[in-house]
Amino acid sequence: MIEAQVLHLLQWVCNLFGLWDFVWHLLGPVWPLVWTLVKIIVIVAPIMLGVAYLTFIERKVLGYMQDRLGPNRVGYYGLLQPIADGLKLLMKEIIIPTGSNKFLFMLAPVMCIAPALAAWAVVPFADGLVLANVNAGLLYILTMTSLGIYGIIIAGWASNSKYAFLGAIRSAAQIVSYELAMGFALVTVLLAAQSMNLVDIVHGQQKGYGMLGWYFIPLFPMFIVYFIAGVAETNRAPFDLAEDESVIVAGFHTEYSGMGFALFFLGEYANMILIAALTSIFFLGGWLPPIDIAPFNQIPGLFWMLGKMSFILFLFLWLRATFPRYRYDQLMRLGWKVFIPLTLVWVVVVAAWMQTPFWLW
After folding, report:
1. 289: phi > 0 → left, psi -120 to 50 → alpha, else beta; which?
2. What angle do CA 281, 287, 291 make, to 5 degrees?
3. CA–centroid distance for 102 within its chain
4. Which residues partner with 129 through β-bridges?
């Protein structure tokens, strides 16, 4: 539908200059490729802008919670601070340590941010507004979110630094531990929706009685586990032990500077936004309104989706401002001895519950 509207607009503009036949002769054979590239740009550009300004919002929210101002000098109310930070990192010298594997050292930041962006290919922003509506979308998401760990391990190993390598090992163990909990939590979503297609998962929550049909009600423990595991997997406080300055300097990116350093943090914040989007889709009804009556159901679904993502991202920032860091043994104990057993038990509970007349979802 959107593709047809874009084509119609392009044809109208070209007809003003009598160029439609010429333009379509060039574009026609490669139009599917061109349309895919357009959709990729339309998705990636706002995400990168959102990543930049999420850093600004984080500093403002933390400032408010800690009774200080936050950024307020660069631009009106500090709104140009992310642009200034980006330019500063872009102009800094990239230093490659002696004895490091230079190719892998430069490749690692790319391997961290690329999966975080590639995962958005199957994320639906509204009904029909998705780059690739594939049936194995859930499997694709799990695959992409798991690949980021390779960038972290390679960064620690290629730096030829014991501090960076220790940080990479700790981070890898942390991500693997909480990836298991996240995966088992999503098994309950798969059971409830009977589909791995993300659009179908949202449609499965469209029961006609608003937010009471969303999966966060029957799967509430899994909603909490998935969110906390998402915080741990993105190395966010209070689980940011991969970059615990008091223990291992700055973790796996100790030896990085300039844009190499920036790409790691772009990947971290892009993963935060991705976890917020997935939490909204799996448990909070995605683009569905909380009440299926006017005027709520007349508001475009994209606004509901962005509103839910903003709420989840605020919880990320709230956690950082509230809790001190966990010890590493506490972190691993929570993942292996609490979350994984809880998710396994809830998989059985949901499977049994669905066989009774009391399952309403």
Report:
1. beta
2. 110
3. 29
4. 126
Closest by CA to 48, choosing from 224, 237, 270, is: 270
H helix runs in 194-283, sequence order: 198-203, 220-233, 245-248, 258-283
CB atoms near residue 103 (< 10 Å): 10
| Residues 26, 29, 35, 40, Cα dihedral to 10° | -100
Identify whether the C-beta of residue 199 lies closer than 8 Å to the C-beta of residue 124. Answer: yes
CA distance 311 to 290: 14
H or E stretch covering 9: helix 2-16
Q: What is the pLDDT of residues 239-294, one digit of tens each?
A: 887 666 566 566 788 888 888 888 888 888 999 999 999 999 999 988 888 887 77
| Cβ 199 vs Cβ 130: under 8 Å | yes
Distance of alpha carbon 347 from alpha carbon 196, whole angstroms: 16
Which amino acid is located at 348 in the chain?
A: V
